[in-house]
Amino acid sequence: MNNNTLQQALLTLNAGSSSIKFAIFLVPEIEQVITGQIDGIGSSATFKAKNTDLSINEKYEWPISSAPKSHNDALQWLIQWLEQHAANLEIKAVGHRVVHGGHFYTEPVLIDDQVLQKLESLIALAPLHEPHNVAGIKAAKNSFGDIPQVACFDTAFHRNQPFINDTFAIPRHFYDEGVRRYGFHGLSYEYIHQQIEKHFPKIYEGKAIVLHLGNGASMCALKNGQPIASTMGFTALDGLPMGTRCGQIDPGVLLYLMDYKGMTAREISDLLYKESGLKGLSGISNDMRTLEASDSVFAKEAIAYFVSRINREIGSLAMALGGLDALIFTGGIGENSVHIRKKVLESCAWLGVEIDNLRNENSEMIISTEISSVLCLRIPTNEEKMIAEHTLQLSKLLSSEIISI
Fold it and tell me: Which stretches of the chain drop beneath a pLDDT of 50?
């Protein structure tokens, strides 16, 4: 095909522990045209993808013998798939979601060997995600060569929060070494931040709490358009209970597990990251949809604990803000669970919240009544869009071709 007929595009990658989410955007308008995901890398791998007009709506399951064994294998397969199904697109840049940027990075960066080395040094801070983010970057470099690649950090959005919300009460030299409250889900919060500024400018200038509720869950306080506090801390374990992660826990529990149960650091890490949260409490599943459909008392108690911790953190963040003008739900649970939104908002009546049950059941953008003192919103997040915007912006520094199209 003649290159003059190709549409220039960029690819976003979000590499998880056993998955790769991807999206393709036309540039410079940043129009999403294809989205998809490979799950179960290293075991029973599956693939799904669709485009905007659904002329592509594909699902595929590999036989175990031929399934991709690594992120590099999966990405190589994905490139071949794109060559067949998106032959009219020319990938000009790749953007990556990177969970942890440490105290090195306060904004997205173009990836070079030095950046990659720093990201590898941060693996211990996000062992569930960072190794796979790095693997995705290396695999993309193997596939695409020297086109610009951009790292977009989930921690960057929170890096200018006040010191008192950024530190722990341990000797100061640990803070200087990088032991601090980083916060996560920053790309999601940044997108919601943009949507609030666009659609609710008065709220943008006020006091808002964003609830990113999904298999990973956290909350962020925004004041005058700036993040001031987050429920997550040094790692993505802190704060709310999650699908398989514990959330807030007394450090003494960890000392007990080491001293009296003889558990190793690896065993404790696996317990806290992979076996706790909704999965551990219920003994059934980490999936909120499964728990909501269950008649099990344990499932109901796991949901009640989840809602209770959300409400405690709302109180804490409202105090940090000095009041509250808006609550915004996003993420897989926040966007889709009518029940969780209802339970949370009913418990916030003391803040002047009044839920509109019909709007909530219909999953409208505004889910509070006209007389509610706090505006309650449901806004779907789009982390891929944020990655695409950052990738295009930084790629322009190197690529006159993208500028000129």
Answer: 1-2, 397, 400-405
| Cα angle 129-134-137, degrees, rounded to a multiple of 5 | 130
Distance separating the N- and C-terminal Cα atoms of the chain: 18
Give the model confidence (pLDDT) of 286-317 as tens digits: 999 999 999 999 999 999 999 999 999 999 99
CATH class of 201-383: alpha beta
- Among the listed residues 39, 113, 146, 154, the single catalytic one is 154
One DSSP character per residue, 46-68 reads EEEEEETTSS-EEEEE--GGGS-
Report pLDDT for 405: 31
Spatial CB neighbours of 170, under 8 Å, sequence gap ≥ 6: 179
Report domain extents, the chain. Answer: 3-153, 201-383
CATH class for domain 3-153? alpha beta
| pTM recorded for the entire structure | 0.91
Annotated catalytic residue 154? yes
Distance CA 105, CA 245 (A): 25
Rounded distance, CA 404 to CA 27, Å? 10
